[in-house]
Amino acid sequence: MEANIIVVGLGPGSKEHLSLGAWDIIRNADNLFLRTTNHPVVEWFDENGIDYRSFDEYYDKCSSFEKVYKSIANSILTETKSGTVVFAVPGHPLVAEKSVEIIMELARQKQISVKVIPGISFVDLICTYLGKGIDNRPVLVDGLKLETWKPDLTSGYIIYQVFDRLIAADVKIELLEYYPPEFMVQVIRAVGISDMERIESVPLYKIDRF
After folding, report:
1. Which residues pair with 54 in a beta bridge?
2. Can you give the pTM of this predicted structure?
3. I need a labelling partner for 183 at 20 to 30 A (CA). Which of 26, 105, 128, 151 fits?
4. pLDDT grade, residue 2 (50/70/90)?
5. What is the dihedral of CA 67, 71, 74, 76, to 10 degrees?
């Protein structure tokens, strides 16, 4: 059965991280949507004449990320009335992608079929840099929901969705409840984007100074 929605992972950064399967679907899509154009591979799409629409405006119109993701999901499902929809997101569609999670739940309720085309996630690249295998990967933690999280101090964690200095300050305050100020952490920015990537080891109290 042909999928009504095809969700494609764009990988974490450059076009080299985009799979051939994903690229084949994208270049042949009649109805392509991007969650955001804020991704390095989009410039390559433009160079190759790929026609797409994005949901960037939703980030300005909606008052929270939760509302952004719900609005995107509802729009994608509405578009299926006109045919198969290809929805492309950064990284891997099933790793820290709330919009995809909502789409899949709504599609299940409405008996709309969804196919997922995997992509390399930011977690894959971070674990590669840290030398971590699949058996000892750090646990993913949403940086916007730390108030509900209590760490196991013997485990490693990747805290994502730290979009700006203000969020980084909130993360720091929460972590200082459990770790000493001099506790060393890795700050990783724009992983997989060669001209923007930054990886540094710093004490916890400095993480909001970047």
Report:
1. 34
2. 0.86
3. 128
4. low
5. -130
